[in-house]
Amino acid sequence: MFQFVKKLFNKDGQLVDYYIDMLAEKNRLSQLALEIGFNKIADLISKCPIDVYSTDSDAIKTEYCLNVRPNPNEFATDFWKQVVMKMCTSSDGCLVVQMSDGNIYRAESFTQSDDVLYPRTFSNVVIRSGDRTYKLDRIFTSNDAVLFKYKNEKVLAYLNEINQENAIAWSAAIKGVKSKLSKFKIQMPGNFQVYSEKTRKPITENEYTEKIRKDLSSDDIRVIFSRNGLDISAIDSKSTMTASDVKALKDEVFTNVAIALGIPKSVFYGEVTEKSDANNEFITYAADPIIQELNDGMNGCWLSQLEWERGDRILINTDAIKHIDVIEQASNLDKLYSNGWSHNDILKLRGKPPIAEDWANARRFTKNYATGMDGNMKGGDE
């Protein structure tokens, strides 16, 4: 940061217009890079199925709500993408409320209580349904509303740096550092002497310089005489960035944002390289922290303590979006099947719909995996 501030000043201690332009461009590119990064993360998460592990009879309805149609006017993919985008880009986070009919909505705005010892409540909730908004006349609690917030210290630190740089640029602009007025240089010979027009007495160099400054900054048309070796010339400051400057700044900003978000450079730039490895890193470092936040929120809001203790869970499944070559992985998939995975478990892993047959849900074990389960099982038995 201090090195950056030093760059703002030239050898005469004056702010240079070029860096004001650079700050404005950096701010624009930073916003663009963050939008690109958050969009990639939101796109990935919105494609993940949400699994509901529960023995309750209404579990299938919950899965339908979370994976197909959260409410009558939205499909799940777009709904969850907008949730992730809002939780990442809004300082207030994204509030999701559940109505009495089981439908869930994103809140456009809300008021949150500041309770510390008691559960917080949410009032003045405005939801969006299609192109319209509607204010709900009720108060939500942690049992029917969950507030998702994005927590990334690297991104917060980066945004804080951008805000500090913007403050410097704004302050400089207010003070008139970047003005449309030209800057001038006055050169005087050592024996230079000027007399006052009124008193006809000699005046100092500083007094004459101030007089010239007022004349040059005046809106009136004036003629300034140059005499006795006096030279007045305009100083051209660099106020525009070249294409190479913008490209270098873009590369720097995009790389820093990608690192802060945990997105591999090849994924951020859309390059086709070791795709599986890059995607796995993308999921692990960029998407998983947000997915964990979503999982915690859904389980904390929509499951009771008793349901959680008996093993009920609501989990976003990233396995289904990983590319699996069934031919290359056939032997590994067969090991899963012989280790108790059902056909439907493997289909879900591949992101395929289940088979509505009892045999597809049956779990089988080979003897070497079934130790301690059934003493009558023999080698090769299922």
Span from first to last CA?
66 Å
Weakly predicted, low-confidence segments: 1-15, 176-181, 377-382
Strand order of the largest sheet: 5-4-3-2-6
State the major sheet: 5 strands, antiparallel
What sequence of helices (H) and strands (E) makes up the elements? HHEHHEEEEEHEEEHEHHHHEHHH
Total beta strand runs = 11
Helical content class: 40-55%
Which SSEs are present, and which pair or pack?
Elements: H1 2-7, H2 17-46, E1 50-53, H3 59-67, H4 76-89, E2 94-98, E3 104-112, E4 122-129, E5 132-135, E6 145-148, H5 153-174, E7 183-187, E8 194-195, E9 202-203, H6 205-217, E10 231-235, H7 243-261, H8 265-268, H9 275-302, H10 305-309, E11 313-316, H11 330-338, H12 343-349, H13 358-361
Antiparallel strand pairs: 1-11, 2-3, 2-6, 3-4, 4-5, 7-10, 8-9
Helix pairs in contact: 2-4, 2-5, 2-7, 2-9, 5-7
